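DM from R.C. (forwarded with permission)

"hey, sorry to bug you on a friday — could you get me a structure for this? deadline for the figure draft is monday and I only need the backbone to look sensible"
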Amino acid sequence: MHLATMVGGEEPYGAIRDAVLVIREGRIAWLGDAAGAPSELVGNPEQTLDAEGGWATPGLIDCHTHLVFGGDRAREFEMRLRGASYEEIARAGGGILSTVKATRGASEDELVASASRRLATLLEHGVTT
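My reply, with the result:
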């Protein structure tokens, strides 16, 4: 990849403008300024991706994700935005118990399909782990 703005791991931390990222056998072999790229690493690439000056960042980590569940909490979210307490939401039939009920009521195929859609959305937004 070349012509991207990258953030390196060495101090002092900062953006690397016009960066080159070399990947060999699925691992980062070199990252740095295009002018300093070792010719033995950047010559005859199998594939080149021009990031057109965009930013390249590591994948994001979402440390608390529930992919598999039935139902939808959009109504509850709206209620919270309008100031409803969790107790009020529960009295209105929402809350975790409604999710448990919806999950138990969903078929395995429905749960797999909805989890697959959620996973695709996470990946589209840069979450890789």
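R.C.: lifesaver. DSSP finds five helices and three strands in the chain.
me: no worries. The two ends are 22 Å apart (CA to CA).
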